[in-house]
């Protein structure tokens, strides 16, 4: 049995907006082959690719650049140990669970195995320090929250195969979406609340202000380039509730204007136009004053629930 003692992975990452991760890594693996020795003949065989290698492959992802002689390194030792290194560029896909977007956490898996040799012939294992992540890793949208590595046995029709797994947990930086999306949405809701301090009879100005804030809210949402999904995301819920608050403001404006304007029936019943107008204006003023308190309190309550559900 030949054992791959070490798979050492210094890497750099590049993450696109479509759940793809690109690894620029160097793969070091060791095994024992007593047939080899550190002489010139063995070196020539290694350069020519004539020595035995575990033929490691990545069971997930696509190798973008095949390793050539300039990106391979081989060294043999007197006791039969072999060190083999190669540089690779690998592209894989991560999970796309966006229910908590933009406060989501994505998980990426990197699996190393061999298709040729079952576990009875080649058994892969990590060494004590299996990987190093380059300090130059700088991702615009994510940061590495956790890295784990373990080994598993993969069952195939041709037998059992040893597989090494790297689990990479990425947490998204939400600051961009907070500044460009969530905060402007709240600002638009706050601007729409200004109608409660406007005259109840000025319906056109009220509706114009509410419609303007709704348009700005929609434009802000589209400008954020949120990835489309068949389900609602935390980002969608925030904008949807903010739009609902603005819609309630529009409905309240129409309602108070209708209440403040007396109908013909009111005038005939009271036989006094002034009394009907006075009663309607009082009800409209009371509705505006109540809305000044109830709607902001409702928005604060929603913000607290939203924070506890998606952020905390």
Descriptive account of the structure:
The protein has 312 residues and is of the alpha+beta class. Helices cover 38% and strands 28% of the residues. It has helices at residues 40-47, 175-192, 203-223, 234-260, 264-270, 273-311; strands spanning 2-4, 11-15, 20-32, 56-58, 62-65, 72-76, 81-93, 105-114, 122-124, 142-156, 159-172. The strands form three sheets. Strands 2, 3, 5, 6 and 7 form a five-stranded antiparallel β-sheet that branches. The chain has a four-stranded antiparallel β-sheet with strand order 4-8-11-10, with no helix packed on it. A two-stranded parallel sheet has the order 1-9. Helix 2 runs parallel beside helix 4 and helix 3 (203-223) runs antiparallel to helix 4 (234-260). The longest helix is centred in the last third of the chain and has 39 residues, at 273-311. The radius of gyration is 33 Å and the shape is rod-shaped.
